[in-house]
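Hey, I'm writing a tutorial for new members on how sequence and structure tokens pair up, and I'd like a real worked example in the thread rather than a made-up one. If someone can provide the structure for the chain below, I'll link this post from the tutorial.
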Amino acid sequence: MSPQTTNDEDLEVWIDQDLCTGDGICAQYAPEVFELDIDGLAYVKSEQDELLQTPGATTPVKLELLTDVVDSVKECPGECIHVRRVSDQVEVYGPEADN
């Protein structure tokens, strides 16, 4: 069975706030997924548009937003955005990815 068994590829994204520089580039690229909080750091948002402030909190990456999320990963000066497969927790985009 392939690790990508659904149309949405079962990807999730999280932000390491310890590395976040607060530039807000991620929120510009993908405001549906990322938001700056009053502490000046970026966080992911739930599918219900709630800010997830628990360290290591993840949110699913919808296929139609994948390009915007990947652009956020590439442009982030803090290199703090991580996108991984849900099935095996392997990072596919981000500082620990093999790409």
